[in-house]
Design brief:
The complex is a heterodimer of chains A (about 675) and B (about 70). In chain A, about 60% of the residues lie in helices and about 5% in strands. Chain A has helices at about 20-30, 75-85, 105-115, 130-135, 140-150, 165-175, 195-210, 225-230, 245-255, 260-305, 305-325, 325-345, 345-360, 365-375, 375-385, 390-400, 410-420, 425-450, 455, 480-510, 525-540, 545-555, 560-570, 575-585, 595-605, 620-630, 635-645, 650-675, and strands spanning about 10-15, 35-40, 45-50, 60-65, 95-100, 120-125, 135-140, 150-155, 210-215, 465-470. The longest helix of chain B is centred in the middle third of the chain and has 6 residues, at about 25-30. The chains are: A alpha/beta (about 675), B mainly beta (about 70).
């Protein structure tokens, strides 16, 4: 991070409409070395960085959220726009670099004109020239400069083309320009619709003057372009530029947005997305898991048999492992989301689901957060920021914990394995699919019910709207997607990592103390057996066990005992901790031939409730546990992020109370219902 | 004169006015739907909502209810 805080450092703000290539340019200028911060007291984020050292310009650069006009339509937009005029920390920018899609001049110049009318010092960066060339059109830069009265530079943020020219004029601009007039929001008269229409008239005139048709699509020498630059063009026809859509895009949309086929393609694309999140990530997650298991064993044997050794191997190393084990899934999710977004499909997916989602109080823009929720609720909640309507945004955040996140997978895997006879393991996939379908349907029902109480959840009655640009399809740039995924994963690690690690350390403390070196009868026991017996004794006299015994009365009605209770509490660090915690409590060791899971299933099958002789884990209680995990909000990181994103404790507390009681209620019904039906 | 939401698939007409009483009208204006512009209905999806129009060389999806405030002739 190389943000300069001295007051004299010039500030450049990047601004532009959505899909104008703004963030691509920002990544290029900052060299992915930026930090993302919230505006004070708000959930709106901006990114700030120093310009990359190699560019040799001493300036800070801010990437603000994409806006269509200077006229705010949501509280979040208002914060971004106000910050443009006067940033709460960095003051007023010395220079605005405005990104404009070359093929969208007539729409994107609106913002440029508004910014100029407000008195800003700006440079226009024209992007996506390839799309314009495909339409057999070109822009005369010299004419556009004159028409706009500011510097205009052609760039390609993906390849870096034109960046040096842009940097030269940025450098020249900030060293020479002394802004004498201070930009003022009220100078712009942007609220008046007639002035909007006037700006459009002006823009259409500019467009007519600077855009011209060519005979070539960018390959080879173009006489007309040269002529136009020299102003030698033959008399103009009345209307030179015709608005046409990208031809390839139209062809693809014939299928992807076809009234009937479109839905088929949507489900196909979603299925492939899900399948790859699970099946591609699975072997990688195994690798991460194995790596930390080995590291933990090595550390334990290196440090000897004492509390510190156990703290390092179990508390720290395994704790870190439980954070990092999700990296493959989250990374793959972001890669696929990146591919879908960069190619242009994501906006179309949002369009397809807008109607059904609006029926349950959500928005087409809830689509991406919900999709992300299947990997992890934390990046999903951050993604919900793009929903302008506050109520729809909060409702989306509200139901995100119900999306079956990847942390539930190891839990389901263990519980399903318990249910299945050894010769029918293939059923596992079907049961898992059924769990997913069940959790999707129940989250839809819950969202529908919550929607009935929407005015109690969020009081503000905003206009519900869905206006979205469907960008032209483009071949995704892989290195750009990789870089973005890397940044997203970094954000996940920074937000969730410390919480998960912190809780696994607390959990370690609760399961290790106070009886650190229990006395046991060691006669006739081998070295390993002594260690194991000590572990069991230590745990059953630990703080965690005390805690578990307090909640025993709550666990009995759903057929569980304190040991499951402790694991359920432990799962609040992260759901998959449930598995490692069960393993710890049921003294599972991996020193024999079997895998951890096999020996764990064996001790689970033998476990009894107290001295009653009744089996603790039966098909009924295991199914009850699965149902519990479908609904329960057992993830403190999610609660923390929900608090941050909604700005108060109201929503997160409601989420914990509602979802966890639902989980308990349905687990109770499942266990006792199954028992009544004769399933033990 | 009819509403943009009543356009048939592939039908191309010119915007005659925008109903400014609709709360989304300003955003509709800012995204490029202005009187005098030709628009064409490109996508009428499964649920008939939202609709995607071609305007100023871009493809814009807006809800049917919002497209109601765009009058075409």
């Amino acid at each position: 991070m190389n943000v300069q805080t001295t007051e004299k450092i010039p500030l450049i703000t990047l601004i532009g409409p959505p899909n104008s290539g703004k963030t691509t340019l920002f990544n290029y200028l900052s060299g992915k070395n930026y930090k993302t911060v919230n505006y004070p007291g708000a959930t709106v984020e901006y990114s700030i960085s120093g310009l990359q050292k190699k560019f040799n310009i001493n300036a800070n650069i801010i990437d603000s959220p994409g806006i269509v006009s200077l006229n705010a339509h949501s509280p979040d937009e208002k914060i971004s726009i106000d910050a443009l005029f006067n940033h709460p920390l960095y003051g007023q920018p010395n220079l605005l670099v405005v990104t404009v899609d070359s093929s969208q001049l007539s729409r994107h110049l609106l913002l440029v004109r508004q910014l100029q009318n407000a008195g800003f010092n700006i440079i226009v960066a024209l992007t996506m020239n390839d799309l314009l060339k495909k339409k057999y059109q070109e822009i005369s830069l010299s004419k556009l400069r004159i028409a706009l009265g500011c510097e205009v530079i052609l760039i390609d943020g993906r390849t870096g083309e034109g960046i040096n020219t842009l940097l030269n004029s940025v450098s020249q601009n900030i060293s020479t320009t002394k802004t004498s007039i201070k930009p003022e929001p009220d100078k712009t008269v942007i609220n008046d619709r007639q002035s909007l229409l006037n700006i459009y008239k002006e823009i259409e005139q500019i467009e007519n003057d600077v855009v011209f048709e060519t005979n070539s699509n960018g390959n080879g020498f173009n006489l007309e372009a040269a002529n136009s630059e020299l102003n030698l063009l033959t008399p103009k026809p009345e209307r030179k530029t015709k608005y046409t859509l990208d031809a390839t895009t139209l062809k693809i949309d014939k299928y992807l947005l076809h009234p009937k086929l479109g839905s088929v393609f949507f489900f196909l694309i979603m299925s492939v997305t899900f399948a790859s999140i699970f099946w591609l990530a699975d072997p990688l997650m195994g690798l991460v898991d194995d790596f930390f298991a080995i590291l933990s064993t090595e550390a334990a044997s290196l440090l000897g048999n004492n509390w510190f050794s156990d703290f390092v191997s179990t508390g720290i190393i395994s704790g870190t492992g439980s954070v990092l084990v999700f990296l493959p899934q989250i990374l793959i999710l972001f890669l696929i989301l990146g591919l879908l977004e960069d190619s242009g499909y994501l906006a179309r997916g949002a369009m397809i689901v807008d109607k059904p989602l609006s029926k349950i109080g959500l928005n087409g823009k809830s689509f991406v957060p919900m999709l992300s929720g299947f990997a992890c609720a934390i990046p999903a909640m951050l993604a919900a920021r793009t929903i302008p309507n506050k109520r729809e945004r909060f409702l989306t955040i509200f139901i995100l914990p119900l999306m079956s996140c990847s942390a539930r997978l190891p839990v389901y895997a263990l519980l399903i394995a318990f249910l299945l006879p050894a010769d029918k393991l293939w059923l596992g996939g079907i049961i898992l699919a059924a769990i997913y379908i069940f959790s999707i349907s129940s989250s839809i029902i819950i969202a529908g019910i919550l929607n009935k109480f929407k005015s109690r959840i969020v009081k503000e009655e905003d206009n519900s709207s869905f206006i979205i640009e469907l960008p032209a399809y483009r071949k995704p740039k892989l290195n750009f997607i990789l870089m973005n995924s890397y940044m997203n994963v970094k954000v996940y690690l920074q937000k969730a990592g410390p919480v998960i690690l912190g809780f696994s350390i607390i959990l370690w403390f609760l399961t290790y103390f106070p009886n650190t070196n229990p006395e046991i009868d060691t006669t006739g026991l081998t070295e390993t057996e002594i260690v194991n017996a000590k572990e069991v004794e230590r745990l059953s006299t630990s703080y965690a066990a005390d805690l578990g015994k307090i909640i025993q009365p709550v666990m009995t009605p759903i057929g569980m005992d304190w040991r499951v209770g402790v694991s359920l509490i432990a799962a609040f660090a992260a759901r998959e901790v449930f598995v490692s915690s069960l393993a710890l409590i049921f003294k599972v060791t991996d020193d024999n031939e079997e895998t951890i899971q096999e020996s764990m299933l064996m001790s689970m099958r033998e476990a009894e409730i107290g001295d009653t002789g009744k089996k603790l884990f039966t098909p009924a209680t295991i199914t009850g546990l699965i149902v519990f995990f479908i609904f329960a909000l057992q993830c403190l990181s999610t609660v923390a992020v929900s608090r941050k994103e909604t700005g108060s404790w109201r929503i997160p507390i409601l989420q914990v109370v509602i979802f966890t009681s639902l989980a308990y209620f349905f687990a109770f019904i499942t266990v006792n219902g199954l028992r009544a039906l004769g399933v033990s | 004169m009819k509403k943009a939401s009543e356009l048939k698939h592939g039908e191309r007409l010119t915007i005659s006015e925008i109903d400014f009483t609709h709360p989304s009208s300003q955003r509709i204006l800012e995204i490029g739907f202005t009187p005098g512009q030709e628009i064409e209905l490109i996508v009428r999806p499964f649920f008939n909502d939202p609709l995607a129009f071609s305007v100023r060389g871009s493809l814009i999806a807006i809800r049917k209810d919002e497209a109601d405030c765009i009058k075409v002739a």
